[in-house]
Amino acid sequence: MSEVFATTGTIAAIATAVVPQQGSVGIVRVSGSEAMALAQTLFHTPGRQVWESHRILYGYIRHPQTQQLVDEALLLIMKAPRSYTREDVVEFHCHGGIMAVQQVLQLCLENGARLAQPGEFTLRAFLNGRLDLTQAEGIADLVGAKSPQAAQTALAGLQGKLAHPIRQLRANCLDILAEIEARIDFEEDLPPLDDTAIISEIEKIAAEITRLLATKDKGELLRTGLKVAIVGRPNVGKSSLLNAWSRSDRAIVTDLPGTTRDVVESQLVVGGIPVQVLDTAGIRETTDQVEKIGVERSRRAANAADLVLLTIDASAGWTEGDREIYEQVQHRPLILVINKIDLVEESERKTLQSQIPNPKSKIVTAAAQNQGIDALETAILELVKADNIQAADMDLAINQRQAAALTQAKISLEQVQTTIVQQLPLDFWTIDLRGAIQALGEITGEEVTESVLDRIFSKFCIGK
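Now predict its structure.
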């Protein structure tokens, strides 16, 4: 393993988020051959409590030299192999906050443990055979899940719903390879290969790979979420729309144009999809230096967003300023939001509808009255589905690393088919077939390199 992941010795790390004056419990996790000895050095139990696996002990953490009391705590014992890492693991469950867990961690480091590297606990679980790489990545996705649907998809990966079809595909490739190699070694003793049957089997494997590759965009949407920018002229109700949508007062709302001077963010979940909503400063020509900076940031936010909500003021009608902004964002995925519709008479609405452009999607809202939000969310989900990115009811979704390996496997299988059609010798068939087997093995970790492990586990938090 690389120096980043030297997996020897006993490791320790804080396994819970450390927030000043928040959180009732903080956990320090220790894993390795000396974990039990370290716990017995630091943890003192009153009475006759039994130190055995999968028990929780009550007691006190003391400095081993001075016997100074550090914390009143619980100790959880998990002996190998019945632990997360399949090593001896102990966890000190301390009082929350900063000081207690940091002092306990420091005592662990002073008494034989070393600070764990990012993801090292999960790396040890992988190296010790408790998890494969897809399950390890599922854990990372679960920790970082931004919506219930993202968490469910991560759990599916953790339960092996991705690993199982990948292993089956690899096993099918290995069966084909065995058939071919048997003919190479014992050509005179076996009947000739059925080229048509081999190609048919490879096509079935490639079709399943294609099906798995189709979940990549869905997975990315669940992991990273949808970035939505609310843009428009000043005072059209962008901040009111954000507040009504998020059911909060994140943005300041006044009758004065130009109140929002910077981008205001809010995190929402729409149909299982995490959504980052950006309320931007009103876009207009201005000599105010501060407002000019806000306008420029608004333009950048619109260009970087996955979806733009161009908001107009129905009571003001379709203005030249609206038209200019529309020309700037019409190349983006767009929903036209006709806000303040409650201030417009029915006859005026028909006139307005004839004036405005007709993008793929447009809705009417009265954000100040909390009206039209359901229609907005429906329009967003319809646009998402139109792009074949349907996040709901997914059993699994691959990530970029897995997609790259599957793509390589598919290319290799296509090369095998070409080799067969060109009637090249059997030795040539095996070259690309081995490439497909190698690529599929990289997904689950049956064939893996240090660089792959470094790339995966360095993204984990230190205590996981």
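The first strand starts at residue 11 and ends at 14.
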